[in-house]
Amino acid sequence: MTSALPAAAFPSSPSAIALRAGKRATLGVEQKLRLDCGVELGPFTLAYQTYGTLNPDKSNAVLICHALTLDQFVVETHPVTGKPGWWDSFVAPGKPLDPAKYFIICINVVGGCMGSVGPTEIDPATGKPYGLNFPVVTIADMVRAQAMLLDHLGIDSLFCVIGGSMGGMQVLQWASAYPDRVFAAIPVATAARHSAQNIAFHEVGRQAIMADPDWHNGDYYSHGTSPHRGLAVARMAAHITYLSETALHRKFGRNLQDREKLGFGFEADFQVESYLRHQGSTFVERFDANSYLYITRAMDYFDLAREHGGVLANAFRNCRSRFCLVSFTSDWLFPTPESREVVQALNAVAANVSFVEIETDKGHDAFLLDEPEMYKVLDGFLEAAASARGLKSRK
Amino acid sequence: MTSALPAAAFPSSPSAIALRAGKRATLGVEQKLRLDCGVELGPFTLAYQTYGTLNPDKSNAVLICHALTLDQFVVETHPVTGKPGWWDSFVAPGKPLDPAKYFIICINVVGGCMGSVGPTEIDPATGKPYGLNFPVVTIADMVRAQAMLLDHLGIDSLFCVIGGSMGGMQVLQWASAYPDRVFAAIPVATAARHSAQNIAFHEVGRQAIMADPDWHNGDYYSHGTSPHRGLAVARMAAHITYLSETALHRKFGRNLQDREKLGFGFEADFQVESYLRHQGSTFVERFDANSYLYITRAMDYFDLAREHGGVLANAFRNCRSRFCLVSFTSDWLFPTPESREVVQALNAVAANVSFVEIETDKGHDAFLLDEPEMYKVLDGFLEAAASARGLKSRK
């Protein structure tokens, strides 16, 4: 009658990181990255993947910004999990983001654990993993680093920046901070600031990690341990927020797992318990606990209006991008009113903005799923934007 | 930059338990309590408190059923926390439950940690605390034990059974299992079965406790430890579900705690983080981690229809109680449709039933707060029921 949480954990040796990183670039050699916290970072590494070919005009580049626990492996098999890319149904021939038409880039965020600089990486000052010596980063820092990589790749202007959840926060930050570099912006299932309830859920996850004695104040790398039990609990709590109550009821209800009767113990009697435990135990095999602390913190800190005198519209005052926002009716993590606030701010500066709320019971995770209506909306928006940008239609 | 979780924990020695128990009765000496899991329990102890005086007819007894982490100290100062009773605004002179009129009883549930038999209590078979050797109990078991205590007190029939959340589950179980013993039933903010999402949140809490190395497979009593870090995380996760997003936003928004600027660390920057940490750290001083496992399990197992051929109406077929159900618009833990299902089942057997959904942004916790509309509704219902029962009006 014990916990079903896993014994395995995410490897964080430099060789393990190199194996899982894919493409990498060293940035910030001549000019460092100045972070919001005041620290200057450099040189530093960003890991990224690209799909398709940059056209001679360099006008077909699309930046996909990934969510909290996702990474640059949008399409191909994931090097750690062996699973298909997380958005391979959306980025594919004949789909809204067709690599035959676009040059698609996805960059592991600063603070991440798939090859970009973050707490698992070696701190050049000490020769040991950063751990909690890594500076706390923000969404704006992530975006600034991405802009440096695009400079490095010789890409001045992006045809489109797209992302869901934390990816959507980066999209908003891109459009605000680099109004001349973004032709079209697609923030999906996101918000211009993280709500009190969302901060609260993140704080539960962080406390679960920090309460794990194997966390060792963030220095578990040198102790040969990993706070995988705490991280699994954090993931379980977060995972509930990614689904809707209706979806949980539809998928699991009160169905029992591999048994006909209640077990009168603390094993997973119900399918929903078994499912959640599985989510926790597989997550720790592909994610670093400190990265989870840093990235959740970046989301909590995000508040685009605050940087602009408390008026969200000011964040978009110089913006000439065209926007398409998408929200989902059953998303209670980033509910529709949060998208509407962004739409209202964009309307206040007479921006070119479309907004669609999609009816679905799949909750926040709908942005990762094959939602036909979302695909139709985004396909139409992208086709029209591509035409305006002078890109050849693929149809 | 460490976790803010507490070092103190709930004392579970027999002397500590005796000090916090209040009134206690030993039951199950001649006839044991047969639990749903098949185990026979006895002799066993129930701790309870009473307020007011039983009238000569024994017709004025009101049973208050407490929620997950509450207890029998409804009115007076809590022996552990020193705080006022949890429902002293509702059970008071001139309030809906006036001790001048009613004989009010509240019993610590089986599995609890305020003096009733549960995992902290000494197992007579071993002379040591039960820990995980305590049998898994159900809501029906809790109610059966309560009925034994009422027999012991010579109370055959209850004027009213009332409770919110898990207390409401007990009310429904009482009306179903003892149709002749309940004149009026008031289930507040509750459901006839625990939903998949609620089971999921409970499972996160249990896993947080069981992931704490100080849990020692439930035998922390003999190790001189306590899984207080895991229990605090469990409480933090649960606490979010007791409030509404609106209430969190209204109370805290993105306000910073004791600082003007973001701290760029993992201390509690935001008030909502500080508040949650406080909820976690104070909870572990008044609650036992194993009790948390057992009581959440009892709630998860609750499914009144399942015991009656899958038809909820059958649970109330012999019921002659009058019902008043209350739900709250912003309660997302026990949302209004769950109460409506009970109302429909009661209507199907032509029961006498009132139902009120109260407009409030306070979430599930509204049932514990001074909600004027709820007080008005319940006062009216109780007055009418008392009159039908031949009890003198206090007005």
The best one-word shape of chain A is: globular
As a percent range, the share of helical residues of chain A equals 25-40%
Uncertain segments of chain A of ≥5 residues (pLDDT<50)? 1-7
Strand order of the largest sheet of chain A: 1-4-6-5-9-10-11-12
Mind explaining what this structure looks like?
The structure is a homodimer of 395-residue chains. Chain A is of the alpha/beta class. Chain A folds into two domains: 14-193 and 310-388, Alpha/Beta hydrolase fold, catalytic domain (Rossmann fold), CATH 3.40.50; 199-296, Orthogonal Bundle (Rna Polymerase Sigma Factor, Chain: A), CATH 1.10.1740. Chain A has helices at 14-21, 139-153, 166-177, 196-210, 220-223, 228-242, 245-251, 271-283, 289-301, 336-348, 372-388, and strands spanning 23-27, 33-34, 40-41, 44-51, 61-65, 103-107, 122-123, 128-129, 158-164, 182-188, 322-328, 352-358. An eight-stranded mixed β-sheet of chain A has the order 1-4-6-5-9-10-11-12, sandwiched between helices. A two-stranded antiparallel sheet of chain A has the order 2-3. In chain A, strand 9 (158-164), helix 3 (166-177) and strand 10 form a beta-alpha-beta unit. Chain A is globular and about 65 Å long. At the A-B interface, helix 4, helix 6, helix 7, helix 8 and helix 9 of A face helix 4, helix 6, helix 7, helix 8 and helix 9 of B.
